[in-house]
Write a structure and sequence with these properties.
The complex is a heterodimer of chains A (375) and B (377). Chain A is an alpha/beta fold and 375 residues long. Helices cover 22% and strands 30% of the residues of chain A. Chain A has a nine-stranded mixed sheet, sandwiched between helices. The termini of chain A are far apart. In chain A, β2 (67-71), α4 and β3 form a beta-alpha-beta unit. Chain A folds into two domains: 4-237, Rossmann fold, CATH 3.40.50; 258-374, Sandwich (Immunoglobulin-like). With 377 residues, chain B is an alpha/beta fold. Chain B folds into two domains: 11-259, Vaccinia Virus protein VP39 (Rossmann fold, 3-Layer(aba) Sandwich), CATH 3.40.50; 265-376, Immunoglobulins (Immunoglobulin-like). Helices cover 19% and strands 30% of the residues of chain B. In chain B, the strands form three sheets. Chain B has a nine-stranded mixed sheet with strand order 3-2-1-4-5-7-6-9-8, with helices on both faces. In chain B, strands 11, 13, 14, 16, 17 and 18 form a six-stranded mixed sheet that branches. Chain B has a three-stranded antiparallel sheet with strand order 10-12-15, with no helix packed on it. The chains are: A alpha/beta (375), B alpha/beta (377). At the A-B interface, α7, β8, β14, β15 and β16 of A face α4, α6, β6 and β8 of B.
Chain lengths: 375, 377
């Protein structure tokens, strides 16, 4: 499976589906953490469509384990009440066959998941991906089913929790949480997925994740009263050429840097209000500076100092990169600066922030300064 | 009689001012607010408006402009200046920044009051009745619950409450707080629209609000989603391009003349006739050209109507085949239309049609369909 990841990601523009390499790598990373704790059972997916995400599950399962693929496929589309994708068995089988010589490990079940019982599936699963019906009831039922077939400590990935086109997913999940408090513990979110762990968990999965993948940045947010990791980028930090689905390695060429230059000299302004100061920004990172809802945004900001160099306010207004600044690209950004209400001389030190993750100054960015005179 | 409120009287200048301020509020969200406020005004006269969490005033410019002629705009914020890394706080003056930014947007501010306090400490009685509220304060479950309760208390029946970041992965507490509010106060606030990071709720919701939206704003494309068990309008495409920014006011949106949406697509099957066994699944290659102004995403698909040889409808609604990647306006794509043959032998006609889920079949909007003969043996 040496080049599996490169072949797999290369197929993303050929295989129909709403799944990203970042999501696949997040699945693989958490699966690797489970496997390191000898938690490696069968894998299952509800809603396989043409198999794009199923391929990731097939690749992470332990040798000899089964993959259960549940979908309405072509024959039962009349039961697709939420219009959440229409599976094709022929396409699915063809796509699986393109990556695995023998797909005898795949057990296809053409059925609505709501008609299935744990007895139909077994109870030895270490990873389930729920991407089937997107109504509140369908989501609730799928979480209920998977929570009963997962091994303790096993991971459940839920699709579209934060997708405004499918509010039922979040509703069904929260109803499940309120009805089965503690059955599933949320652990991570990213790339249209939320990961949960079946309780009782034999180990702290996020502590283990941090030990194994210290180079993958995350924010910490609270979901269901529990701190979870929120990811905005994954693929940028993995060397896909050196990695396999069950062993990820860091991208050693990753770097995060920029060049900032004020486009004006000393600025004089009246106290109060927000002014704009132009700053030339060159992205010298290997990832884009971008701000999209739901992911930790990159922004141009500044630290405010007194004339004698004392820090007055470290955190200040952000000018987010609503339009992405790609690696090696440059742009003049009109940086929003709140003018202090007290007259005097100040120093504005420009910096780049990756919200909730890091300031680039802390990673060695050379930060330029400008004198602000408030009159 | 309502106030146009913006200093120049036109939306374009207001949006330019908003865009210069830090914050996340999109002009598209502003238009969505204005459209629903305009609809609600048919039944409830615009009165006071309220915003919890104003930051630099980016969205306050819009919310303030939604008030009635004699209405007040109330801004609630803790205005807590962010701190130095050593934990010490220096009053750089966020409240002053907010007031200065508002003063730069309106000729006077004698209709505005600013409350520097946590919203949880502000009693409803101190606020009075409101026709529009925007919640963008604490994003925790507790904070969201508390703010929804406050706004539900102050908003008049038929009035609107907009909530920020319900679907934001960085703030899961918002949806939790909102759903807990619905659990404890079922039916008090009803979701009516979702878009641009906002959910709009209506107190004592009208059953026909979105029907009226579809009639009055038929030039703004929306989809349908189900939220809290009822249909809501889902905004997935930018709406500012639909609006004439020079002729519109916050209380009266005017469409751009060229923005009337046309549901048009070219549908060209690669074959005129196919045969199949009973119940067989087959695919028919079809060339599609998107002749609308919106992307064909997950909710616009190719499907077909099945007719018997004598022209009777056998099955109108059939499985959809979707575009991957989404098909942009003007672009074309070959789609393999999935067809399941009927169980009965005979001759059939497949009428290929495009469908916008929850909106309409393209055929019903005047688009030309194509047919393929199906023989089942």
């Amino acid at each position: 499976m040496g080049n599996f990841l490169e072949s797999y990601f290369g197929a993303f523009d050929r295989i129909e589906g709403w799944f990203s390499p970042d999501a696949a790598l997040m699945f693989m990373a958490y699966n690797e953490v489970l496997a390191a704790h000898e938690l490696a059972g069968d894998v299952l997916e509800i809603g396989v469509h043409h198999g794009l995400s199923t391929l990731a599950l097939a690749a992470i399962r332990r040798d000899g384990a089964q993959l259960v693929a549940i979908d309405l496929f072509d024959e039962l589309q009349a039961s697709n009440v939420s219009s959440s994708g229409s599976g094709s068995r022929a396409q699915f089988v063809r796509n699986m066959g393109a990556f695995f010589e023998d797909i005898a490990f795949v057990r296809c079940i053409a059925a609505a998941s709501s008609t299935l019982d744990p007895a139909d599936l077994g109870r030895g699963f270490s990873f389930c991906h729920v991407d089937g019906g997107h109504t509140a009831k369908e989501t609730y039922d799928d979480l209920d089913l998977c929570s009963r077939i997962l091994l303790p400590g096993g991971v459940l990935a839920l699709d579209d929790y934060f997708n405004p086109a499918f509010p039922g997913v979040c509703e069904g999940a929260i109803k499940f949480w309120l009805a089965h408090h503690g059955a599933l513990t949320p652990i991570a979110a990213g790339f249209n997925k939320v990961l949960f762990q079946k309780t009782p968990a034999p180990f702290d999965v996020n502590a283990a994740f941090t030990r194994r993948f210290p180079y993958i940045p995350h924010e910490t947010v609270r979901l269901w009263e529990t701190p979870i990791y929120s990811f905005s980028s994954f693929a940028a930090f993995i060397d896909t050429r050196a990695s396999s689905p069950r062993a990820l390695f860091p991208n050693e060429s990753f770097r995060m840097d920029a060049a900032l230059t004020f486009q004006t000299g000393e600025v004089t302004a009246h106290g109060g209000g927000t002014i704009r100061i132009p700053v030339r920004v060159v992205n010298r990172s290997t990832i884009p500076f971008v701000a999209t809802p739901g992911a930790a945004p990159f922004g141009l900001s500044y630290h405010l100092r007194s004339d004698d160099g004392r820090e007055l306010q470290f955190n200040n207004a952000r000018s987010y990169f609503a339009q992405a600044l790609a690696p090696d690209e440059e742009r003049i950004v009109d940086m929003a600066v709140d003018v202090p209400k007290v007259r005097g001389s100040y120093t504005v030190e420009a910096d780049i922030v990756w919200e909730g993750i890091t300031w680039l100054k802390d990673r060695g960015l050379e930060t330029p300064s400008l004198r602000l005179l408030v009159v | 009689m309502v106030s146009t409120a913006i200093d120049t009287g036109v939306l374009r200048r207001a949006f330019e001012r908003m865009n210069a301020l830090p914050g996340w509020f999109l002009p598209d969200a502003a238009v969505m607010f204005m459209a629903y406020n305009q609809l609600a005004a048919d039944r409830v006269a615009p009165g006071n408006t309220l915003e919890i969490g104003v930051y630099h005033g980016k969205s306050s410019i819009t919310v303030a402009s939604l008030r009635g002629a004699a209405g007040l705009f109330t801004a609630i914020d803790v205005f807590d200046d962010l701190q130095s890394r050593d934990g010490s706080s220096h009053d750089v003056g966020l409240q002053g920044v907010f007031l200065a930014n508002m003063a730069a947007s309106f000729p006077t501010l004698d209709w505005m009051r600013s409350i520097a306090a946590p919203s949880a400490t502000v009693p409803a009685e101190a606020l009075g009745p409101h026709s529009f509220c925007h919640i963008d304060g604490l994003h925790s479950a507790e904070g969201t619950y508390s703010d929804m309760r406050l706004c539900a208390d102050v908003v008049v029946p038929g009035g609107l409450v907009a909530l920020d970041d319900y679907f934001n992965q960085r703030f899961p507490g918002v949806s939790e707080g909102a759903l807990l509010f619905e659990r404890h106060h079922p039916g008090v606030l009803t979701p009516v629209a979702v878009g641009f990071n906002k959910v709009i709720f209506q107190r004592a919701a009208e059953s026909d609000l979105n029907e009226r939206f579809a009639r009055e704003f038929d030039y703004i494309p929306t989809h349908v989603a189900t939220m809290w068990g009822r249909p809501v309008a889902l905004f997935e495409s930018p709406v500012v391009p639909c609006i004439d920014l020079d002729r519109s006011t916050p209380h009266q949106l005017v469409p751009r003349t060229e923005s009337r949406l046309r549901m048009r697509a070219t549908i060209e099957p690669g074959t005129a006739a196919v045969s199949a066994t009973r119940g067989q699944a087959l695919t028919i290659p079809v060339r599609i050209v998107n002749r609308t102004t919106v992307d064909f995403g997950w909710d616009i698909g190719l499907s077909y109507h099945l007719f018997s040889s004598d022209g009777q409808v056998v099955r109108w609604d059939n499985p959809r085949s979707h575009f991957y990647p989404a098909l942009a306006p003007g672009a074309e794509q070959r789609v393999d239309l999935g067809v399941v043959a009927p169980e009965a032998e005979g001759a059939y006609t497949l009428e290929l049609d495009m469908v916008w889920e929850g909106i309409a079949w393209f055929k019903d909007k005047g688009n030309r369909t194509s047919t393929v003969t199906l023989t089942v043996q």
